[in-house]
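Quick one, T. Sequence first:
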Amino acid sequence: MEIKIGRNDPCWCGSGKKYKQCHEAMDEKIRRYRDAGHIVPERSMIKTPEQIEGIRESGKINVAVLDAVAEKIHAGMSTQEIDDIVYRTTLAHGAIPAPLNYEGFPKSVCTSINDEICHGIPSEDIILQEGDIVNVDVSTIYKGYFSDSSRMFCIGEVSEERRRLVQVAKECVEKGLEQVKPWGFMGDMGEAVHQHALKHGYSVVADIGGHGVGLEFHEDPFVSYVTKRGEEMLLVPGMVFTIEPMVNGGTDEFCEDEENGWTIYTWDGEDSAQWEVTVAVTEDGFEVLAW
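Structure tokens:
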């Protein structure tokens, strides 16, 4: 329950400004949406400019790590070699790989190949083959701030079917970003993502989505990509979350690797592709903090 603040009291965000000079007008606007029956964000989901700057700096490192992977990824290398690049590069920037030991995850990065939807675990025994598609999902902690983004890589000569899936998955993120604006709705973004995938004959995983990020690895809200325009949570300046739809070549159903308890596969063995960005809602649109 939010505590009532006097207009001349310090703002709840920690800016040091009086409430009336800081978040009062925005809070009143949010209240009107809530009273109209919409889902609105808690104050804890709204980042201050200082916090967003911290996430931005973390995101720069996250991008540098993915760039380092992009320079060296090739057929014949093991996914453990990718993990080594991520670990070394992250530490060289004075940061920490967020996945390492997160809820027992044993590596610094997720590497998901072909029909692996997400959470692939790097291994010396898993060798990238000519024609593979692989998602490299990097997450970084820098000075207490978290960022999270991933890219797809085509290894050597890739089939037209796989290349098309990878491209459409990227376009889904771009279509979603176009809908991120203050006083819109999370469902606006979700519908744009979903419809673009459907138009190309693909499905989007419904039960695994994005998340808030910044002060923790995974924060509220849950971000779905199979939603409807005008529905879901109100988008407010200062919200930071990921857009990371998992686009499948076949059904959206999936199964979990019972042996390692992490890796998620497509149910029908068809390929899956995913790109991920960390995005902040701004006063006039959005800012990508990591891709």
